[in-house]
Write a structure and sequence with these properties.
13 strands, two-stranded antiparallel sheet, 7-stranded mixed beta sheet
């Protein structure tokens, strides 16, 4: 999957700035451009007008990029499955417990899978600040940039805070507003994830084979650092789950929950509660729930009874229709006042399966008489007009 690349502040101004800004941006480095913007605009912060707001946004973005570069440009490739799973977790914890991976984080979204049309989002959330800022690039226009800013209190419950903002969502450009809230949720979500297979480090393509083949922590760390120096400190969020989901014939949605762990149950983390991705090589060994409920094989419940009870009406009708709605032993039909059953030729108790070729139609009399005996080949009359005498 291809992910959107981030457009730096300097390159954005080269494309969209006025003539003076564009000329200056072309002549200087990104670092010099950011520092020049900060020095020029910081004096305008106190202006309570449009100029002051724009100066504050420019200065904030320049400062965010400055911090981001100093942290080895941390970025997260957010795979579609992570975007879908994050909103399902109720973030019932105070902001004071939020564990930020970095103070400045870049989120990159997959091409063709842009939530709320987001291409990339740079989030600026320094520790101790009571304001969250996100600088969003959208897919609905060339280099369309929007600054989103929300204030909070450390004791505010994250989930309640998000729901309160959703209730106040404006009708105009609502997807821009929703995008800002999704970014906050994703960053909190990522910070709480504890599973190594959900958030995985990105290394250089030439190092991937070596990275996957070693268990030595020092070697892995060295390869991660080399990638950070050259391309930024990158992570894939949900890549393994997405790849398994896309190739597996059987997919059960993971159920992610917030847990409190550690001494005094004071550390919040997100873990999988149930559900999984079942690889295709294991599909034959995994219960599907199609003919019987999934459960512990040691449960003291007759598996034969469980499978029969769970047979769908659709499948039962298909077997009856295939057999012409008549008993395959005596040929009687429901028109003769009997009840038709879908039964197993080879009983489950003797190793029979739930495959279609082991299922057939029997009337209630023949089924009760057959019980769990060995398979009886049909010997019914070709006529369906047989009438059974009352017993």
């Amino acid at each position: 999957m291809q992910f959107h690349e981030y457009t730096s502040f300097r390159n954005l101004m080269v494309r969209q700035g006025d003539d003076e800004t564009r000329d200056f941006a072309v002549r200087v480095s990104s670092q010099d451009f950011r520092r020049s913007v900060i020095e020029r605009d910081v004096e305008k912060f106190g202006n309570d007008n449009t100029e002051g707001t724009e100066a504050f946004n420019r200065c904030s973005l320049a400062l965010c990029e400055e911090v981001w570069v100093a942290l080895d440009r941390p970025y997260y490739n957010v795979w579609p499955i992570a975007t879908a799973l994050a909103p399902s977790v109720k973030l019932n914890l105070p902001f004071s417990q939020v564990q930020l991976p970095f103070h400045a984080i870049l989120l990159r979204f997959g091409r063709g899978h842009e939530p709320h049309q987001l291409r990339t989002a740079m989030l600026f959330w320094p520790k101790g600040f009571k304001t969250i800022q996100a600088f969003c690039h959208f897919a609905d226009g060339e280099d369309n940039l929007l600054t989103v800013q929300h204030a909070y209190e450390p004791d505010d419950n994250v989930e309640e805070w998000l729901q309160n903002l959703i209730s106040r969502r404006p009708q105009v450009a609502a997807y821009h507003y929703d995008a800002g809230l999704l970014i906050v949720r994703l960053v909190v979500f990522i910070g709480l994830l504890s599973r190594d297979d959900f958030v995985t480090p990105i290394v250089l393509a030439k190092d991937r084979t070596k990275y996957n083949s070693t268990d030595e922590a020092e070697v892995k760390h060295w390869l991660e650092e080399r990638a950070a120096r050259r391309a930024g400190r990158g992570f894939d969020v949900g890549k393994k789950l997405q790849l398994e989901k896309d190739k597996s014939p059987h997919w059960r949605n993971p159920h992610l929950c917030l847990f409190w762990t550690g001494e005094g149950r004071s550390k919040p983390i997100i873990q999988m509660r149930s559900g999984a991705i079942v690889q295709s090589v294991s599909i034959a060994e995994v219960p599907t729930g199609y003919l019987g409920p999934e459960g512990n094989e040691d449960d003291a419940v007759d598996p034969k009874k469980k499978q029969r009870e769970s047979m769908s009406k659709r499948r039962r009708f298909a077997i009856l229709q295939r057999d012409g709605f008549c008993c395959q032993l005596c040929g009687v039909t429901s028109a003769n006042g009997v009840t038709l059953h879908v039964d197993h030729r080879v009983p489950l108790a003797k190793g029979g399966s739930n495959a279609d070729d082991n299922l057939w139609t029997l009337c209630d009399h023949c089924n009760l008489g057959k019980s769990d005996s060995e398979i009886i080949e049909p010997a019914r009359s070709s006529s369906n007009d047989i009438r059974r005498e009352s017993s």
